[in-house]
Design goal:
The complex is a heterodimer. Chain A is mainly beta. Chain A has five helices and 19 strands. Chain A is 13% helix and 35% strand. Chain A has a seven-stranded mixed sheet with strand order 6-9-3-4-5-2-10. In chain A, strands 11-14-13-12-18-15-19 form a seven-stranded mixed β-barrel. In chain A, a hairpin with a 2-residue loop joins strand 3 (66-69) and strand 4. By secondary structure, chain B is an alpha+beta fold. Chain B is built from seven helices and seven strands, in the order ββββαββααααβαα. Chain B has a three-stranded antiparallel sheet with strand order 6-5-7. Chain B has a two-stranded antiparallel ribbon with strand order 1-2. In chain B, a hairpin with a 2-residue loop joins strand 5 and strand 6. In chain B, helix 1 packs antiparallel against helix 6. The two termini of chain B are 15 Å apart. The chains are: A mainly beta, B alpha+beta. The A-B interface holds A 10-18, 20-21, 24-25, 27-28, 30-32, 34-35, 38, 63-64, 66, 73, 76, 125, 128-130, 132 and B 6-7, 14-19, 21-22, 24-31, 33, 36, 41-42, 45-46, 49-50, 52-54, 56-57, 59-60, 64, 72-76, 170, 174, 177, 181.
Chain lengths: 310, 205
């Protein structure tokens, strides 16, 4: 051994500068930073835990059902528990951080299920995705407890003209039935009730703000629902309906005489005629309307600043 | 010793003379330029830092979902524990216990063992306990490879992208990091320090 070493000199190891050992501490520090970042993201992304009471929660699943607003997911149902009086089901829901302003008094929550009514099919996507909870934002004080509503509430329409139409019978008119002007839907039926003396049905309807000037004190309303069948000697039978929707779900149409009267006030009462006379359909009053531009707007993109709740 | 000693490169096998290495420096092989050492450099610190990082990330890896799947609005998040519970409910007891052992128990045991080794290695006592712990880690180690198998399952689920949109959750990143960090911690642990006498420890520092 010694001779070997003496005869052949061994190569010498090279000494180089080593990386400082404290660099190794960056590994656990990095891991801790990652955990803190996760926690921070959770903190930012997590909104309030709200409680909604529903009469019936068929179709809801704990840990699965979404809360949606304007079609985007803003929360998830966490638990479903029966209240002690067995009258309601308590649904606890975790909202996303961006949706915390929806947890305000006046917010209405309802369950969207597939529905076939009034000639329209709605909630069809829920057949595949399962039912979900939709919300209409309120603007009261922040709160975390809500009473769910059974059906989708009518969207608020500021400036819409509310009128009452007196009919001898409800016939096919329903809630959400359209109100037509020249076969164009300009409003909808918001509700109905029997007159206080029981001799007529009072149908509440509203006409959107932009079409409100069309309704005058001397306007005439008639039932536009169902099928309109004319028998003529030479033409045979002629059937017409304004739209498939009114065929099934009923509707109200109105016309204003060529010399329009004063604009109708909120709560004005009109009589509902069973059938339209041909002369009503020929009326063509000139009423200036302020209609919104039909072209898609590009000039008014939403601000990055969310609008202040009213 | 006189400072000089013979050392064989662990990579290319060249026997060479090694002068005393001053602090803050490292010896490199004259032929292949690889690290040259009697004991793995900073073995204690490396094992400590890597297993500490693994311990920190062990929690998010089990608390956060491994995958979040979305299928036409049906939204589901699955953590490892939930997955195991589902398997138990489906009466897949063998696979469930296998995943429980390989992805929850064995990383935990390994991390604890490595922390114990790196923290107590300087103590003259508990030598036998350390050897025993090292043995256990050696036994667990091959089973940890099943984590890779679990990751393969995750990947195949992500491949389902056309049917459902499946996103890897935060858990899977943490979990991968835990697997990699425990691997590094085990690799950088030099078992020879287990039986080094105090003089040897000083020499090979």
């Amino acid at each position: 051994m010694n001779r070997l070493v003496a005869e052949r000199s061994l190569p010498k190891a090279v000494i180089k500068k080593a990386r400082p050992a404290w660099l190794l501490w960056l590994v656990p520090i990095g891991a801790a930073a990652l955990c803190l970042w996760f926690l921070y993201r959770d903190f930012v992304a997590t909104g309030p835990l709200i409680t909604i009471y529903f009469q019936n929660v068929s179709g809801l699943q704990a840990g699965n059902t979404q809360v949606q607003f304007r079609g985007s997911q803003i929360g998830q149902v966490k638990t479903l528990t029966l209240t002690s009086d067995l009258q309601h089901v308590k649904v606890t829901t975790r909202l996303a951080g961006s949706a915390k302003d929806l947890a305000r008094a006046g917010s209405l929550f309802w369950i969207v299920r597939p529905e076939l009514k009034m000639g329209t099919i709605s909630g069809l996507q829920t057949i595949v995705s399962g039912d979900y909870i939709d919300v209409q934002p309120g603007n009261g004080e922040p709160t975390n407890v809500f009473m769910g509503v059974e059906h989708q509430p009518l969207a608020e329409q500021p400036g819409a003209l509310s009128i009452i139409v007196r009919a001898s019978a409800l016939n096919s008119v329903q809630e959400h039935s359209p109100v037509f002007y020249r076969s164009l839907p300009v409003g909808e039926v918001t509700g109905y009730q029997l007159a206080s003396d029981g001799r007529a049905v009072m149908i509440r309807a509203r006409v959107s703000q932009e079409y409100a000037p069309l309704v005058r004190e001397n306007s005439i309303f008639w039932n536009a629902g169902g099928l309109d069948i004319h028998f003529g000697l030479f033409k045979g039978a002629e059937a017409s309906a304004i739209s498939a929707q009114s065929l099934l779900g009923g509707g109200i149409e109105f016309a204003t005489p060529s010399n329009p009267g004063a604009p109708a006030a909120n709560g004005a009462v009109f009589e509902l005629n069973e059938k339209a006379k041909d002369e009503w359909k020929n009326w063509a009053p000139s009423i200036p309307l302020h209609l919104p531009d039909q072209a898609p707007r590009t000039d008014s993109l939403p601000n990055s600043q969310p609008p202040e709740p009213k | 010793m006189g400072g000089d000693s013979l050392i064989a490169c662990e990579t290319c096998g060249l026997v060479q003379e090694l002068a005393e290495v001053p602090k803050g420096s490292a010896a490199h092989c004259a032929r292949c330029d690889f690290h040259l050492f009697h004991r793995r450099p900073n073995t204690r610190l490396r094992t400590l830092t890597f297993s500490l990082a693994a311990l920190i990330l062990y929690f998010p890896s089990n608390l956060y979902p491994i995958v979040t799947a979305e299928y036409h609005g049906i939204y589901s998040e699955t953590t490892i524990l939930q997955g195991i519970r589902t398997l138990f409910q489906d009466r897949q007891y063998v696979i469930a216990s296998l995943i429980l052992c390989t992805s929850i128990l064995s990383p935990a045991l390994k991390i604890m063992g490595l922390l114990f080794l790196s923290l107590t290695i300087e103590w003259p006592r508990w030598k036998k306990a350390r050897t025993w712990v090292y043995q256990v880690i050696r036994i667990i180690d091959p089973w940890n490879m099943l984590e890779v198998f679990l990751l393969a399952i995750c990947v195949s689920m992500i491949e389902m992208g056309q049917v459902a949109s499946v996103h890897p959750g935060r858990g899977v990143f943490s979990f991968t990091a835990v697997v990699a960090l425990t691997l590094l911690a085990t690799l950088s642990f030099d078992p020879r320090v287990l039986w080094d006498s105090p003089e040897e420890k000083k020499r090979y520092e």
